[in-house]
Amino acid sequence: MAWVIGIDEAGYGPNLGPFVMTAVALRVPDDGAGDLWQRLAAAVRRDTDADDGRLLVADSKVVYSAARGLRQLESAVLAAHSPGDENGNLVLERYLEALYASSHPALRRERWYSGATALPVEVEATHCGEARARFAAACRQAGVTCGLVRGVVVCPEQFNAITEAARSKGAVLYHGLAELVRECWRIDGDEPLTFFIDKHGGRNTYFAMLQDAVPEGMVLAHHESAARSVYSAAGTRRPLSWTFQPRADAEHFSVALASMVSKYVREVLMGEFNRFWCEQVPGLKPTAGYPGDSRRFYDAIRPAAERLGIPEAALWRRK
Predict the structure, then answer these.
(1) 230: which strand partners?
(2) pTM (predicted TM-score)
(3) 303 or 84, greater pLDDT
């Protein structure tokens, strides 16, 4: 058996709200993951037009939109991995404590965060339970285990601090990647870890970040280009390899699922963010936090933020 790990993020571009990055680790047979959409076809699909009751797993931008709502995104995310009890009862705080534990203490300090949101938000709990059972059955038949989901949440104050210290917004990506690589390194056993990571911006070199993240051995760069950057590690107790590529979520099931988990967590957190500020400013229209609308929202909440003693750096991302 071997581990195939996908990493992707949501919320890198907004001015408001958290940045979320997630790793999804799947344990697969020794012959490799192959096409996991095909192997798990009894429970999942990638075709957005063929809504036949199976879970849609694809780039989160395809699965979710404000107009379509959370249903398809939520169904797949909670079916694939959920720390709820046997009845599916779950609240956001418990979900984040299980999957985003390292970030949760900082998140608790955010005035808008309560963690009290009941999950699922839009999908019926019974539907989630049925979807989880179908996905688990398909995984058993294919010899696949969704063994680990871990993530990082970075709120604006930390986002600004990391960006300013490195003089680069990209440092936030490397912060998240390094933490998730170290987290996956802790997976028990000596089976190979193969990472597929969605590439961002124009950077083609990741050697230094990977070397800092790996607790032993030496990282080797095999290929670095706009299309693909490939690395492995020598002298480690288990084989390690990384491939960075644009649109990795279109090629790798694990990356698509990581993209969806990240988007789901950000959207549920933004639900709490908007509820808090709409209570402080009656009549305020919610925001997704992206440029174009974020300034309208921030200007509206600024007097309330000043009254509550919340500084600009804790709300507004400077880059």
Answers:
(1) 223, 243
(2) 0.95
(3) 303
